[in-house]
Amino acid sequence: MIKLYDNPLSGNCFKVKLFLVQSKIPFESIIIDVFKGESRKAPFLQINNAGKIPAIDDNGFILNESNAILLYLAEKYNKNLLSENLDERGKIYSWILYNKTSVDPNLAKARAIKKFFPPEKQNSKELEFLQSEGIKSLELIDKHLFGNDFFVNNYSVVDIAMYPYIKLSYEGGIDIDIFKNITLWMNRVENTKEFINIY
Questions:
Q1: Count of C-beta atoms within a 10 Å radius of residue 135
Q2: Is residue 174 over pLDDT 90?
Q3: Are 27 and 4 in contact, with CB atoms under 8 Å apart?
Q4: Is the CB of residue 67 less than 8 Å from the CB of residue 100?
């Protein structure tokens, strides 16, 4: 059985959990309390020496980085969430990398500052920058989703990767409701089979 090193407040962990649930893959969730520094302690560092969640242990094969985990799991367990068409798969790879270069870094960090940092630790200039850059990525995504149900034709690992921190962007002080195509897309994701809520 797959072990998922997990935390219920992590959008990146949610991605992996959503994939596993929707693909009907049995797994054990092992909660790592990052707020108590458990991800930086020796037991977990043997799983991921970068000290970050999520990570999985698939019968002895250990892998970290949420989007890499999604691609690995899709290749091994559910190719329906990839594509047989090479051009489509190329677009999936492109979007899943864009997610990690331009979407999550801004939306997740803005959320972290607003939700988890005490007021005296919040850097307002950094927050404004992250919100501004996050909005730029959302504008691009909203344009892309005009006339498209999902990122690359059918529901795929890209939609799973994109969903959590876009959904939670309001916690970083970004009004997601102004992006009508993204709102419609989120509704479609939430209506896929076996969907689970973040919290």
A1: 19
A2: yes
A3: yes
A4: yes
